[in-house]
Write a structure and sequence with these properties.
- Strands 1-2 form a two-stranded antiparallel sheet.
- Strand 1 and strand 2 form a beta hairpin.
- The radius of gyration is 32 Å and the shape is rod-shaped.
- The protein has 4 helices and 2 strands.
- It has one domain.
- The chain is mainly alpha-helical.
């Protein structure tokens, strides 16, 4: 984990990787850029470590929403039960019974409407957060893909040799170039 990233969220870490890639210095006589592999890897590992925490927070919010909805439902059930008991006591007075029943129905409907509204708000919030994570991940993937494309060494279309391959040994030796082939995916020893 990098020092100084304790208060940084996942999105900021990924934005830092993008900044590193965007600000990478080109290699001499080439359009290919050089990126500090260890720094980028550390930032990406930190971002991956933080995802579970952020997802855990989102799950906690969903759990809290479910608990609130259950409490609202319990409150609504208690209100219904209280209204039923009250209505039974006042059976002899139909107007009072009718009013209590209407009030109970209205209260229950309001509680259900509040529960629906809160459920939709919580779902929207979670969806927005997940969509933001998805966008950041897609941007990072595109940036990494573009960076890797830039790092790939390709031969010119006109068929000229750029100094790599089986015939490059003599040319490389004549120019003082090491004959060992550099593979970007292999770690340096």
């Amino acid at each position: 984990m990098m020092e100084g990233t304790g208060d940084v969220d996942t999105e900021q870490l990924i934005r830092r990787v993008i900044e590193i890639v965007n600000n990478a210095k080109p290699m001499p006589l080439s359009t290919t850029v050089r990126v500090e592999k260890d720094e980028v890897r550390e930032l990406l590992e930190d971002a991956l470590e933080r995802f579970p925490d952020e997802l855990r927070r989102a799950r906690w919010m969903l759990k809290e929403r479910d608990e609130f909805l259950a409490k609202v439902q319990r409150d609504a059930d208690e209100i219904l039960e209280a209204a039923r008991v009250r209505a039974e006591r006042m059976v002899q007075r139909t107007d009072i019974v009718r009013t209590a029943t209407q009030l109970a129905r209205k209260t229950v409907e309001e509680a259900r409407e509040d529960a629906r509204r809160l459920r939709h708000e919580a779902d929207d919030y979670c969806d927005q957060k997940l969509a933001a994570f998805e966008i950041v991940l897609e941007r990072t993937t595109k940036t990494v893909r573009a960076g890797r494309e830039k790092l790939r060494v390709t031969a010119p279309d006109d068929g000229t040799d750029i100094g790599f391959g089986p015939d490059a040994g003599a040319l490389g030796a004549a120019e003082g170039i090491d004959e060992a082939f550099f593979d970007q995916d292999e770690p340096l020893s």
